[in-house]
Design a protein that fits this description.
- This protein is an alpha/beta fold and 219 residues long.
- The protein has 3 domains: 4-70, Histidine-containing Protein, Chain: A (2-Layer Sandwich); 76-144, Histidine-containing Protein, Chain: A (2-Layer Sandwich), CATH 3.30.1340.30; 153-218, 2-Layer Sandwich (Histidine-containing Protein, Chain: A), CATH 3.30.1340.
- Helices cover 36% and strands 29% of the residues.
- It has 6 helices and 11 strands.
- Strands 4, 5, 6 and 7 form a 4-stranded mixed beta sheet that branches. Strands 8, 9, 10 and 11 form a 4-stranded mixed beta sheet that branches. The chain has a 3-stranded mixed beta sheet with strand order 1-2-3.
- Helix 6 links the parallel strand 9 and strand 10 (211-214).
- The longest helix is centred in the N-terminal third of the chain and has 14 residues, at 4-17.
C-alpha cells in the first residue's frame, strides 16, 4: 500500500502529465488515502480534468475537491447568454428530444433540474453544459423517471454481472452484486476510484435499476 507521501507524488505527477491541466496553483493534500484538491483554475473543464486525473491514480480512496474557477475577463459571459446557449443545446440535440430539463444560471453556476428516462441522458446534459464558455460550476439535479417495467431481480443481477465482465477496465471478480426490488447493492473492492465510477455507470445503464448502494472499497 502506498504511503500518503507516495500517493501525493503520484497525483501531482498525473496532474502535470495531463495536457488539459495548465494551472500551477493546484495543491494536493493526502491523508489516509483521501485526496483534497485545492487552488485556482481558469475554466470549469480544467477543474473537471483535475478531479478526473486524481481519480485515475491507483490508491486514491476518496476525493474532496475545493478548486475555484476564476475566469479571465475575456472569457466571462452573462448568465443570460449561458442560459440561451443551454436552451439551444436542449432544443436542437436529438438526445434530449424526450427530456424535460430546465437550467438556472447564477454567476456562471448552472443548476440543472427536470426528468429524463436514462442515466446517460442526465450525464450527457452535464457534459454538454460543462463545455460552454463562462460556466463555473454545475449542480445536476435531473431525476430519472420511474420505469414501470416489471423486471425479475435475478435477470437484473445477471445483466449487470455480464456487463461488468465485458468491460476491460473493471475487475468484475472482486465485485458482488445483489438485487432486491430494483435496489442494487455493490460490495467488494476496486483498484482505483475511476473503476468504481465505471461500475456505477454500468449498473445504472441496466433496465429495472431504481437505486444503487455503493459499498465498494478502493484498495
Amino acid at each position: 500500500m502506498k504511503t500518503d507521501k507516495q500517493l501525493q507524488a503520484d497525483v501531482m505527477a498525473e496532474l502535470k502529465w495531463d495536457p488539459r491541466i495548465q494551472s500551477n496553483e493546484i495543491g494536493v493534500i493526502v491523508k489516509d488515502g483521501a485526496v483534497t484538491l485545492t487552488g485556482i483554475v481558469d475554466t470549469y473543464p480544467e477543474k473537471l480534468a483535475t478531479e478526473r486525473a486524481a481519480k485515475r491514480v491507483k490508491g486514491v480512496r476518496a476525493i474532496a475537491e475545493n478548486i475555484e474557477v476564476k475566469l479571465p475577463a475575456e472569457m466571462r459571459t452573462t448568465d443570460e447568454g449561458i442560459a440561451e446557449r443551454i436552451a439551444h443545446i436542449l432544443q436542437w440535440n436529438s438526445m434530449f428530444r424526450n427530456a424535460d430539463i430546465q437550467a438556472e444560471v447564477r454567476q456562471g453556476y448552472v443548476t440543472l433540474t427536470g426528468e429524463v428516462d436514462w442515466t446517460y441522458e442526465k450525464q450527457a446534459a452535464s457534459s454538454r453544459v460543462e463545455e460552454l464558455q463562462g460556466v463555473t460550476g454545475i449542480f445536476n439535479q435531473i431525476r430519472i423517471r420511474p420505469r414501470v417495467d416489471i423486471v425479475d431481480a435475478r435477470d437484473v443481477q445477471k445483466q449487470i454481472t455480464s456487463a461488468l465482465h465485458r468491460h476491460a477496465n473493471v475487475e468484475a471478480s472482486k465485485v458482488r452484486v445483489t438485487v432486491a426490488e430494483g435496489k442494487v447493492t455493490l460490495d467488494g473492492t476496486v483498484d482505483a476510484y475511476r473503476e468504481r465510477e465505471l461500475i456505477e455507470d454500468a449498473v445504472w445503464a441496466t433496465a429495472g435499476v431504481k437505486q444503487v448502494i455503493d459499498n465498494l472499497d478502493v484498495m
